[in-house]
Amino acid sequence: VANVYHAFAIHSFADELAQAAKKDSVQYLLDLIGPPRIVSLAYKEEEADEKQRYPLDTARLRRVVEIAAEKSGWGKRPMGKGRGLGIAAHRSFLTYVATVVEVEVDSKGQVHIPNVWTAVDAGTVVSPDNIRNQFEGAAVFGTSLALFSEITATNGVIDQSNFDNYQLTRMNRAPRRVDVHIVESEAPPAGVGEPGVPPFAPALYNAVFAATGKRVRELPLSKTKLV
């Protein structure tokens, strides 16, 4: 689960850097990833055998970013006032995922999600329908994490006891459309249960910035007034 907050911090910061550099967020992200290459993730000698079997392939990460951006019409569609696109990408459980989220912020500061585009490279695909189901679900779960869900404590006791006081995404706040694009790959099969979640929140928050000009650095979004 460390992938969730790591991806949020990394890709929120990457988008901030892109804005500071006055660069397009997608192009800046591709520049950060760099040219296609294989990167060993072994940091200790005893990790070498395991880590070297599953190095980071930046070509695969670049590819999902390019596909998600292309499918979303990044840079080609007028957004209008209160609308914006955000992107983030992350590798977890040996799966490469990029997500673009479109948001619409209404006059009351409420965030709506018309569209989500996700590109996933999970290696060799056995059941594409199951992969789509997992990533559609990840968009809904990611919406809960980004907009509402929070655990708090009072005097050392957790305040939330059940779903009556722990808010999840309802149908009226869930993404209206989720497009999942599966990358053909001959790599070994990888995970699809959790990898859709980490890039979602940073992509959504980056879209909020694009729509409002307001940079939010704290989860969940319900704690921040956008107007």
Task: From the structure above, extract its key features.
alpha+beta, about 230 residues, two-stranded antiparallel sheet, globular
Order of helices and strands: HHEHEHEEEHEEEH
Overall geometry comes to: globular
Number of helices in the DSSP assignment? 6
> Residue ranges: pLDDT <50 for 5 or more in a row?
none
Mean pLDDT: 94
Q: What Rg, in angstroms, do the CA atoms define?
A: 18 Å
Strand content: 15-25%
Largest beta sheet, briefly?
Answer: 4 strands, mixed
Number of strands: 8
Helix content: 25-40%
C-alpha end-to-end distance: 32 Å
Which strand order does the major sheet show?
3-4-5-8
Query: What structural category do the secondary elements indicate?
Result: alpha+beta
Task: Give a brief rundown of this model.
This protein has six helices and eight strands; from the N terminus they run H-H-E-H-E-H-E-E-E-H-E-E-E-H. The chain has 227 residues and is an alpha+beta fold.
Walk me through the structure:
The longest helix has 20 residues, at 128-147. The protein contains six helices and eight strands; from the N terminus they run H-H-E-H-E-H-E-E-E-H-E-E-E-H. Strand 4 and strand 5 (111-121) form a beta hairpin. It is an alpha+beta fold. Helices cover 36% and strands 20% of the residues.
Can you lay out the helices and strands and say which pair or pack?
Blueprint: H1 2-20, H2 25-33, E1 38-39, H3 48-53, E2 56-57, H4 58-72, E3 83-92, E4 95-105, E5 111-121, H5 128-147, E6 153-154, E7 157-158, E8 178-182, H6 200-212
Parallel strand pairs: 5-8
Antiparallel strand pairs: 1-2, 3-4, 4-5, 6-7
Helix pairs in contact: 1-2, 1-6, 2-4, 5-6
